[in-house]
Amino acid sequence: MSVMDADDILENLEESMDNAMFVVDGTNREEIQQYKIRKRAKEDLYVSNFQIKGKAWEHDSSCVEHDVYVCKANALDKLNRRNGAITCLQNAFHTMDENEGKYVIALALAKLLFRADREQESLELCTLVYSTYEQQAASGVKPFVVSRQNAVDAFYLAGWVKIHGNDHTGAYATWTRGHRSVPEDSVLLRQFRKRDCWDSYIIPVPAADYADTDAPWITMVGHGAYGEDAPPRVDNADLIAYSVPASQHDHTPALALFDPSTQRNRLVFKTKHAVLAPHECDNVLRAVNAHVRDELAGVWGTVRHSTVKTTDVAVEDIPALRPWLRELLRTRLCPLVAAAFPVLADGTSTVDPDTLCSRVRVHDAFIVRYDAVQDKSLSLPEHCDTSSMSFTVALNSRHAGDFVGGGTWFESLGERKETPGTSSGGDGMVVDADKGEAVLFAGPLRHAGYPIVSGTRVILVLFLYVHDFPYGDYIHAYEQTRAHPAGSGAATGGFAETEKANDDSATAHDIGTITHDATRVRPSGDAEGGFVVYRQTVELADMLNRSDGNNDGHVLS
Questions:
Q1: Which of 104, 126, 454, 480 would give a disulfide with 154, using CB separation of 3.0 to 4.6 Å?
Q2: Which is nearest to 257 in space by CA: 448, 482, 492?
């Protein structure tokens, strides 16, 4: 039996009194939680100000200077005084001696600046922290002033700053550097392995590698609709193009990614023929189902958090599918990207002119299942992808009766129509593909998984980026010169991915409980207020919310 001191008894009594008051007032659970957070923040702010004024760390060994400043900043931030929190940490950073505390403050400040959309300042501090870690590790001189965990957080956040700016190449370069500095960290290792897994398709595969007929993936790489010979050169004749109407131009910053004279407002494409033969689709489904059965105990998981139920599995987690997807990218999908998007905004193409290899890289690849029977995972809310381009490839067929409904809804493909009381920009359009066919589109386009009515729909989803093509500045310039309000949801993929993570509410604990109005259905089939963020975004939110000091984020008293 634990012994309670006077402080514990008083705290329990106050909580009981608060709860009783809330019951009388009819306050909901979320309001109660917010009240308690603010109450604790006010207490922390009072105590930390008292400790700072008296320099308590100079005469109390249990009080650590940088912990007090971090605690004060956290309290100010929770009280919606973020600018004050930033100023607090900036003053502490500039006045502290060159010791461990200075770099704890630097990382805490970097997190706050990221949340305040001051990405460049955040990146500079992250670089300072992890560069110092690298220098101290190389010298071996102790004591170290940057802990291993703080170095990992600095590498991870720096990569996300670059993702936020739509610089995927820079992000993965930072995460790879981080993995080499801290090879035992699982988060940085995962990002490194992603590049190691998918970038190998850039190198031509020797014919001898195809000689092993026992390879489990060998029968998956058929010839699709192209016949027995090698696929011919892909051009626009192989694609059905969908254009953005003039009424949507000011609200479609994705147009900024490409040369307007060659793109001609065409941002969505569907293949006229299958890129996967029926037996290839069936073999992929067998591999996925075997993985779910053998590795996941028969239960589909998810790489996303959403206001609706979603089920999916990462392709990189299924060894049998890795070489298959590499070959699919090299022989079919990357040529389709080059045909659909011939000239980028910087005047280059997706094909390297020197090597003639594709510059297209995989950011994420997963198999998505919409299931109206078992999981009730019927749709996906409106969102923008963290990608330059995205693919969906149908692995089963509506025409064969596998499912009813479905498809991908695009807001910008319908005429602009302002609807009072909603955030809808028009009715949009649903684009669908049959088994083996693909839909390719610009990632920053606002879109949604249109609901299925019955059955099970399974698709391959790819988020792609172009090596050394950071497009954030093009998006930003487009928004600045048009009526489209920055950050309204149709903005960049990077913004859409991280906007929820920048909110304290978007933690792994409560991200699935954010309410949305299921009674107000939008043209996409999504309810008002629906959202989807990916697991790594939630991990980022958790890292941003984690205290950087030695305590739990509260004052040491």
A1: 126
A2: 492
